[in-house]
Specification:
The protein is α+β, with helices and mostly antiparallel strands. It is built from nine helices and nine strands. Strands 1, 2, 3, 4, 5, 6, 7, 8 and 9 form a nine-stranded antiparallel beta sheet that branches. It is elongated.
Length: 301
């Protein structure tokens, strides 16, 4: 089953379960990746978080029911997963601009968010650089944290722990500098113009609703690993995608754009599929301009 077909089946599952419980682990099983990776792929491709998409679709269907049936608001709230009619009415008004009661009136303007579908986008105006390399097993070590898969991909301004928070803290408290000094020599298969501190994600199982993320260095000659978490990265074939240079203040946008092209352009059209959800982000550049290589563990279809 190809990537596009799996993604289409996942969206069909979501659509069939909007009026009920959506099991993110079932979605991950359909797409053959971790729930975290599906959250990430969806947000990059659709430019909206999966949670926001599901909320909008549910409130779209709720508005249609209000206009075409006599269902009670309290029953509609329960049907679409809200704890109370009050929380449902608040969310409904935030999206549609009117209350559920007002939505029943003839001629009222409501919003409809259509179902997302995945298809190959034929553009071709810009080439995409990549290379395929096979590497023996290696080790990385560093500062590890386990994140909630859904919370890490919700951008609603509320306090939810994300990998970017780990980066910020490590920069501020000096642990990033210490990891860099403890890194030792870069292995020969890594570009020598890169930094010594990178990131690796989904390198082990931590539970159905979580994922591991590590600020890491490659373990090699001179590495000082005491006090750090060590991860074994098995032998893999890697698809490696280099970015163009970007200003550090634009890093999130540049990296997100590269991931979006990988998931929406390269994976659907290449003869490769991702192995699990393992990926690495290798950083380089100077004080002004940054550079990244995204490494995805892959295998031929």
């Amino acid at each position: 089953m190809d990537w596009l077909t799996r993604m289409s089946f996942a969206m069909q599952y979501i659509e069939e379960n909007l009026a009920g419980e959506i099991d993110y682990n079932e979605i991950a099983r359909i797409v053959c990746c971790s729930s975290h990776n599906f959250f990430r792929m969806f947000s990059f491709i659709a430019d909206i978080s999966l949670s926001d998409y599901i909320r909008r679709r549910r409130l779209t269907l709720a508005a249609l029911e209000l206009q075409n049936s006599d269902i009670k608001v309290v029953d509609l709230a329960a049907k679409y997963g809200y704890d109370s009619p009050v929380s449902f009415a608040r969310a409904f008004a935030a999206l549609h601009g009117v209350t559920p009661t007002e939505a029943r009136a003839a001629g009222v303007t409501l919003k409809a968010y259509p179902r997302v579908s995945f298809q190959i986008s034929i553009k071709g105006e810009k080439e995409m650089n990549y290379r395929i390399e096979t590497r023996e097993a290696f080790q990385v070590f560093g500062i590890e944290e386990i994140f909630d898969a859904e919370a890490a991909h919700i951008d609603d301004g509320l306090a939810k722990r994300k990998p970017s928070d780990l980066w910020t803290e490590s920069m501020e408290n000096g642990t990033n500098d210490k990891l860099e000094s403890d890194a030792g020599e870069l292995p020969s298969f890594v570009g020598q113009n890169l930094h010594k501190v990178h990131a690796v994600c989904d390198y082990k199982e931590t539970g159905p609703d979580t994922f591991p993320y590590m600020l890491c260095a490659f373990r090699g000659p001179g590495s000082k690993v005491d006090g750090y978490t060590i991860a074994n990265i098995p032998a893999h074939t890697w698809a490696i995608f280099p970015s163009e240079k970007f200003k550090w203040e634009d890093a999130d946008t540049a990296i997100g754009s590269l991931y979006k092209r990988i998931f929406s352009e390269w994976l659907p059209t290449s003869n490769y599929e991702q192995v699990g959800s393992l990926d690495m982000e290798l950083y380089g550049g100077d004080d002004e301009f940054g550079y990244i290589e995204i490494w995805l563990a892959v295998r031929k279809n």
